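Example (one chain per record):
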Amino acid sequence: VAAEGPLGKLEGGVALSTTEEALRTLHFQVQDADLALLQEIVPLPVNPGGRVTGEILLDGGKGGGRLVLEGAELYGERVDRAQADVAVDGSVWTFTTVDVVGPAGHVQGSARLDVDGGTVDLALDRVEVVLSGVAALQAAGIAAEGTLVLKGAVHLAEAGPTGELLVQNVTGNVSGIGLAETAGRIDLFPDHLQVSLASPEDRTWRLQGTLGFADDLPVEGTLEVQEASFDLPSTGSLAAWVLASGQVSVRGPLARPVELQAEGVVQAAELHLGTALLQTVAPVPLWMRDGRLRLEEVRLEGTGSSLVASLSLDLGQVVPSIAGPKR
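Predicted structure:
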């Protein structure tokens, strides 16, 4: 049997048992065929579209082959090429040596398709996310670069994806904010992510929260730091940095950072300006509104000097301003 049309080219053969009224053997080859053509044979719980090339041979409900999918899109992210070896046992299709490449990164692992149940289970050996290629971040106007390396398991069903991903490595920055070395996990739900991350060795910081999949990417979370260091913009040869402990809660649309709101408290901090050292004498409340971070009533003391000030930081310009009398 050979057929060719707008959906692509299909060649194959089939043997039916007239006594058992069952399919005995099925052999087909597809070349640059629309995925919709394959879905007539193997219903999938998700439809990424694209064009399929490959070959499958089934004998008595068992068999296998190899398939390549190109030009697809899954959950808004483009897939340039996905390929895998296929083994079939009744209604269960197992995909091994899965290799997926697209602008958002590279995925390696395996998958199990339950045709009757309409589900796919992914075992992800390595997921390398290229932040600059993630369509969801681009659509939200969020500038990001670097990579995020994960591994874990994901379950795909008609209701949406669920699963657990372990963070193995993080590099780069988001909206100019550097991403620190990170360990932890990301739990995936049909409408949001739940994250629990921390610095991998000294536990100087911990982040817990959720990120929704709606267009404005609603985020809600809490960051806790314990004697964590932060570099400050400096002029000339005078280095400036802060060693701080405290916590801050953030909520709002990540797609519109200026609308994010935050509140918290700096329990203790040390301000290093060159060789000078100033320390807080009391907890410092902080809040963020309209893209501006503000710390009120900052009281600092050092050897032979003290300072009472308020600090305001425009997150769009990342330029701190300090107002208050020196004493």
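Caption: Confidence is low (pLDDT under 50) at residues 318-327.
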